[in-house]
UniProtKB/TrEMBL annotation:
Residues 104-152 form the HTH crp-type domain. Pfam families: HTH_Crp_2. GO terms for biological process: regulation of DNA-templated transcription. GO terms for molecular function: DNA binding. Gene3D superfamilies: Winged helix-like DNA-binding domain superfamily/Winged helix DNA-binding domain. Transmembrane segments: none annotated. This is HTH crp-type domain-containing protein. InterPro entries: HTH_CRP, WH-like_DNA-bd_sf, WH_DNA-bd_sf.
Length: 199
């Protein structure tokens, strides 16, 4: 039986080889040198290495792991599920759980940013967009996610809400970046109470 093979053009192969060489050069940086660099520089190098490795092996996001995968802390994720189940009915626990699952499935690599807009979250959860802020606000109060405001050119106001997963809960991308982000982020509130503050 014939096997379907994805064709790769000569320019694509050349680009992949250049990306692989650049990633290899970055990997040669010594731990001694890296530890003297500012944290932001180490994160930038890690992100660049990860991006180059991905460019060198574009097929790795498919096959066994279509769309890539997200790393989860099993214990902390289970604790969050339990905490969501204990929410009062007015806090819409079913929709909060659905939102949490969607967050885990839609993370940007190396930043932990949630890639769904408010309207997309509303459509997938099955609620009005105005309720998404409350639902995500519940996850934010639990320490599962954090919210930033991103200014959009030509748009008045504080900007659109952008959400990021707490790196103690889940991550999608470089472990080096995850460790750096986790060192600057507190674990979710419930987990601190249950684990005596351990991360």
């Amino acid at each position: 039986m014939a096997q379907i093979v994805r064709l790769t053009t000569k320019p694509q192969r050349s680009g992949q080889e250049e990306a692989a060489q650049a990633a290899e050069q970055l990997s040669l940086l010594s731990e001694e040198l890296l530890k003297h660099l500012p944290g932001e520089a180490r994160i930038a190098i890690s992100r660049a290495t990860h991006a180059l490795q991905k460019a060198a092996r574009p097929d790795t996001t498919e096959g066994l792991w279509p769309g890539g995968f997200t790393m989860l802390s099993r214990m902390q994720t289970a604790t969050i599920w339990d905490a969501i189940r204990e929410l009062p009915s007015d806090d819409r626990p079913n929709q909060v759980r659905h939102a949490f699952d969607l967050v885990l499935l839609n993370l940007r690599q190396d930043t932990g940013e949630v890639l769904l807009t408010r309207d997309q979250l509303a459509e997938r959860i099955g609620c009005a967009p105005k309720h998404v802020s409350t639902i995500m606000g519940t996850l934010e109060k639990m320490g599962v996610i954090r919210r930033e405001r991103r200014k959009i050119e030509g748009m008045q106001g504080r900007g659109v809400a952008v959400y990021f997963i707490n790196p103690h809960v889940a991550w999608n991308g470089s472990l080096d970046v995850r460790k750096a982000q986790a060192a600057e982020t507190r674990p979710p509130m419930q987990l601190e109470l249950l684990q005596g503050g351990a991360s």
